[in-house]
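User: My collaborator sent over this chain with a note saying "see what the structure looks like." That's all I know about it. Can you take a look?
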Amino acid sequence: VEVNYQLCNYLRSSFPEAQVICDDFLNLTPEDLGTFNKILMNPPFSDSQDIKHITHAFSFLKSGGVLVAIACEGPFFR
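Assistant: Without extra context I'll predict from the sequence alone. Here is the result:
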């Protein structure tokens, strides 16, 4: 899931075997995408968006699944 239209096009052309959804991840639900055993993400960092995205991603994670995300250092100090 990528919100930037130009990046979506780049990802689609670079990885034709992958399903690329051009949307705001926070607008999507597990009913839209399904649930996953593994989630790997690089969320946006500004305005604590990384924490919002990571928290939202947990709703897509199957029981016993693994979520790996890049995050700013700020949340660890707040």
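A starting point for your reply to your collaborator: Helices lie at 5-14, 30-33, 49-57, 74-77.
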